[in-house]
Design goal:
The chain is mainly alpha-helical. 66% of the residues lie in helices and 0% in strands. The protein contains 20 helices and no strands. The relative contact order is 0.07. This is Importin subunit alpha-5.
């Protein structure tokens, strides 16, 4: 080590005992592990925590006569596929909901089984069923959960031409449909740089940004911000900065929120954008986010603190 480096090291650690330096290294390592863990939440599955009741599983003639659409009837996969293709809109909805519920199991959802059975192209076709928005929603939810899986499973959704239909659903008058489409696109963006760039090239980011209004429900806003963060993430290669810089003023305004999940994902998005060349860092600084980021370094929420710390570190 050179004399200059020796002096720099001595100055940097002046007044620190060996124990203090070791403790500091441990704290930094813990933060890095937490950051790595948080950084992996790039796909999310919409879990259905409501268990089927006995009434849900009623397949009797009486249940059919009631014609209830509220609870899915337990079906085999072939029956489900047949029902999803039915000309009867009620049967289509019930069968599609059954498929969605199978894909919403917390543990070991049978994604590959349903892909092999042909669920994906059927669900994609049902995204056009505007006369039956409940069926559209169930189909979108099912596809969202398939896209939350492996890259091959996500690719199945992409190859079925679901992306243009999800982008069309962003303009749906039904908020639950627009939100589910946002979630699906977020999962696709989170699969990697190639799918992220595909969505950016198709203009997904401005369409998602356009969904933000002063009265937007918090849960919807969370999904939007998380999807935006996925459209900004991955470094190999990084996204085209000219395609993502449009989200900076929006993220700056949203930093005023006090919702923990939203704040965390905003900070992650800013950390991805600022993790690069000086012009990217300067663009982040120019939005005026730094004072708020410094405030967030005092947050008691680890998810916020870690992401804010990474962004400030980049700057």
């Amino acid at each position: 080590m050179s004399q200059v480096a020796d002096r720099r090291t001595a100055f940097k650690n002046a007044g620190k005992t060996t124990d203090e330096m070791r403790r500091k290294r441990c704290e930094v390592n813990v933060e890095l592990r937490k950051a790595h863990k948080d950084d992996q939440l790039f796909k999310r599955r919409n879990i259905d925590n409501v268990e089927d009741s006995e009434e849900d599983l009623d397949t009797s003639a009486e249940a059919s006569a009631r014609g209830s659409c509220m609870s899915p009837i337990k079906m085999s996969v072939p029956e489900m596929i047949e029902g999803m293709k039915s000309d009867n809109p009620q049967i289509r909805m019930i069968a599609t909901r059954s498929a969605r519920k199978m894909l919403s199991k917390e543990r070991h959802p049978p994604i590959d089984e349903l892909i092999q059975a042909g669920v994906v192209p059927i669900c994609v076709a049902l995204l056009d069923d505007e006369a039956n928005p409940n069926t559209q929603f169930e189909a979108a939810w099912a596809l969202t959960n398939i896209a939350s899986g492996t890259s091959d499973q996500t690719l199945t959704v992409i190859r079925a031409d679901a992306i243009p239909k999800f982008m069309q659903l962003l303009k749906s008058p039904h908020l639950n449909l627009a939100e589910q489409a946002t979630w699906a696109l977020g999962n696709i963006a989170g699969d990697g740089a190639q799918t992220r760039d595909l969505l950016l090239d198709l203009g997904a980011l401005p369409k998602i940004l356009a969904l933000i209004t002063p009265t937007i429900p918090t849960t919807f806003l969370r999904n939007i911000v998380w999807s935006i963060s996925n459209l900004c993430r991955n470094k190999n290669p990084p996204p085209n900065f000219e395609q993502i810089r449009i989200c900076l003023p929006v993220l700056k305004d949203l930093l005023a929120t006090d919702d923990v999940e939203t704040l965390s994902d905003i900070c992650w998005a800013l950390s991805y954008i600022s993790d690069g060349s000086n012009d990217k860092i300067q663009a982040v600084v120019d939005t005026g986010v730094v004072p708020r980021l410094v405030e967030l370094l005092d947050s008691k929420q680890t998810t916020i603190l870690t992401a804010a710390l990474r962004t400030v570190g980049n700057i």
